[in-house]
Amino acid sequence: xxxxxxxxxxxxxxxxxxxxxxxxxxxxxxxxxxxxxxxxxxxxxxxxxxxxxxxxxxxxxxxxxxxxxxxxxxxxxxxxxxxxxxxxxxxxxxxxxxxxxxxxxxxxxxxxxxxxxxxxxxxxxxxxxxxxxxxxxxxxxxxxxxxxxxxxxxxxxxxxxxxxxxxxxxxxxxxxxxxxxxxxxxxxxxxxxxxxxxxxxxxxxxxxxxxxxxxxxxxxxxxxxxxxxxxxxxxxxxxxxxxxxxxxxxxxxxxxxxxxxxxxxxxxxxxxxxxxxxxxxxxxxxxxxxxxxxxxxxxxxxxxxxxxxxxxxxxxx
Length: 317
Ligand code: SF4
Ligand code: SF4
What we know:
This protein is of the alpha/beta class. It has a single domain, classed as TIM Barrel, CATH 3.20.20. Helix content is about 35%, strand content about 10%. The chain is built from twelve helices and eight strands. Helix 3 links the parallel strand 2 (about 70-75) and strand 3 (about 95-100). The longest helix is centred in the middle third of the chain and has 16 residues, at about 185-200. The mean pLDDT is about 95. The structure holds iron/sulfur cluster (2 copies). One iron/sulfur cluster binds near residues 248, 264 and 298.
């Protein structure tokens, strides 16, 4: 894979500082039942990296200590962590909103029986990637048979009350463009998704998050190999919107890797770009001190968060 980090580190992106941390986004490990071509952490069934039990306990302590309002769980497939259900139950008991970044096919994996019911019982928000509403595009990106299973997963969640307008069970979908272009208008695309998924599969959902691709990891490597890296960066920069700067997710979110190390966001975690603040920057330090007011480690890929309608883990800004 071609590395884009050397091309991203020197930047003219504006300096920004952290505000109060509202969301702790935790990567529970790289094990996954899928092996998607574009996977940013190269997850798969044979990966063994997994957050240790003591760190899971620390996550709960940090939620309490820092009055975090949202726990956002990622992976791999976060549900494959043996302590996933314990962590969710404890966080919900504290009144913390929990988001499960779910690949949908995990709902049908052996050993995951009752997962959909568990998520519904606990009132967990489900965020699922569905890069297109057509079988061909999804199977090309995520593997053969993934589209059909994803559709079944969405239907299963709908049957439990997820995604209905009057329900407290939220089901949100994520879209990324297939190539080096900015995502289309989120509202219009959401209307298209809602119309098509309802008409063909009887599926309902709450919101669609249309996110720009970051020029890092596999996508960045593909851009480099096709000579599209510079034009894509030019596109992101030409569409810079200063009005998106206050809403970038790193101002209110801390990203934690499976070893308990802190980052300003998941993209920085993927690049191995640690926080600017000197020190170990681990869950342990977060127990002692908040990071409000600290400078954020920016680089060229940050233009991916501020281009056009803006991008964050909750969609357009
Ligand atoms: S489902 Fe997600 S974590 Fe799993 S391989 Fe695909 S992109 Fe990676
Ligand atoms: S890439 Fe990360 S650090 Fe940069 S603006 Fe986006 S969220 Fe913030």
